[in-house]
Structures are given as structure tokens and as C-alpha cells.
Amino acid sequence: MAKSSVRPPNCADDRWYPARPAVLRDDVSGYIERAPVLDLPGKIIGLVAPHAGYFFSGHVAGAAYRQVRGGDYDTVVLVGPDHRGITQGGLAYADFDAWRTPLGEVPVDRDLLAAIGRQVKLRAIERDDEHSLEVQLPFLQVALADFELAPIMMGDISPNTCRELGLAIAAAMRGRRALLVASTDLSHYYDDPTARQLDQKTLQYMLDFNPDSLVAALGRGAAQACGGGPVAAVITAARELGAAGAHLVKYATSGDAWEDRSQVVGYAALVLVKPEEVH
Predict the structure, then answer these.
(1) pLDDT the model gives residue 277
(2) Which of 28, 84, 77 is nearest to 226 (CA)?
(3) What is the pLDDT of residue 1?
(4) Residue 278 carries which DSSP code?
(5) Domain CATH code at residue 264
(6) Global confidence as pTM
(7) Is 39 helix (H, G, I), strand (E, B) or coil?
(8) Share of residues in the chain with pLDDT > 70 (%)
(9) Fewer Cβ neighbours under 10 Å: the N or C end of the chain?
């Protein structure tokens, strides 16, 4: 167990996202409110959202979270990449009872994490300075009234691990009102036209809704996404839970927010939808 039971908001530094609660809520609410609501063929059980600084990708993340605003979810299973090697090449979660942002605290669903951990090796870690999960929380706090969090970092994105984690998440989620979220950006530091071409190829693998093909494409460089493993795991879980497809909500690059288009990062918002049951 970590010395402190609450994970502090390491990224609330006015660079990743605002430190002042009122400013943060206004910014996130604006990103969400300015996005259109899609007419989707079923219930959303999963999202893919970017994790860059809000100045660059907040409008894309807001488009994803707009689709679940006010949704009836008790728990959010949030899966992101390990940019800093803190998982030591495995699967891990930060060992805290709650995560804090300037908007308040989100309790951790330890029961769900334990259920997932009975199926795959999921290590508890005490040090966590990974940003890919934290930057999603203010969006979740604004979009959803009340929820618990099951945060998972992936340092291993091998095909077997992506599949096993996805199956473990699905098994643990059955009977729960849970939302899946995969945290990822797309290509990094190409010129804008090249980035868009690469990202469209990557997005097509996600839209094809075949996690094995996505992981294989990532492995041979035909797709680029720092959170590609989390996306594959989340798609695997979503498919097991009845989702039939992914829908692209919004795509952009950092060049849409900043004048320098010589080295951009790609961002996308997707929703994973389960068809409504017909009685």
C-alpha cells in the first residue's frame, strides 16, 4: 500500500491542464459543450481519447467525452501507456485509494482491479508520474457525475498481453455499469501532411475493430500510436462485451492549434458502441 492513499494531481501545472479549479472546469466544460452529439447505433461502452496538453488536444478529448456526458456508469476502466518505464515492462496500477485533481477526488475501484488481477499479472506500484491517465480525469469528472476509477498502465503491448488484458477486463466488467477508456495519441513529430496520412492508416485499423490486426500493424510500423496497446486491449474487452464497432468522432493534429506544422502530433476521439438489444 502506498504511503499516501491519495494520488496527487501531478499534471495540474498550467501546462498539461489548468491548476485552478474554476479555470479547469470552464475549460473542460467548453471543450465538451462545443462538440456535437452523434446519433449512434447503440450504447457507448468505450472511448478512445488523446492525452496531450489541453491546449493542443483538449478539443478532441472533449468530442469523445461529449458522447457520454451524463452517462450511467459506475466505474471507468482507464487504460493508458507507460511513457516512463515505471511498470518495468508489465501491467501496473498506482496503489492509491483515490486520485485527486483540482476538481476533487475520484475513488479507486479496488474490487474491479482485484478481479482483473486474478486473470493477469497486475502489479501495484507506489510511484506514478505517468500523464496518460491523469489528464483524462478532469474530462471524466465533468462528463460523469459520480464514478469510481480502475486505472491500468501498460508497459507490455505484446499481442498476448493486449488480448489477455482485454479478456480479463471484460470478465471483470460483466454485470457492472462500466465505461472503457483507452488513452492514446497518434503519430509524433512528422510534418502535418505526412502525419495525417499515417494517422488515417492507424485509425483504419481501429475502425476495422480488429485488435489483433492493430497490434500487428503497430509491431511492423504500419500504424503509430503511443497508446496502441491500450486501444487494442480496450477493443478486445469491448468486443467481448458486445460492442460491434468503433466510430470516429473527431481527428486533428497539434497543427490545428499551433502555427508550427513542421512537427505535429495526431489526436483522435473514437467511441465503441454496443447495439441496443431488441426485445
Answers:
(1) 72
(2) 84
(3) 44
(4) P
(5) 3.40.830.10
(6) 0.96
(7) coil
(8) 98
(9) C
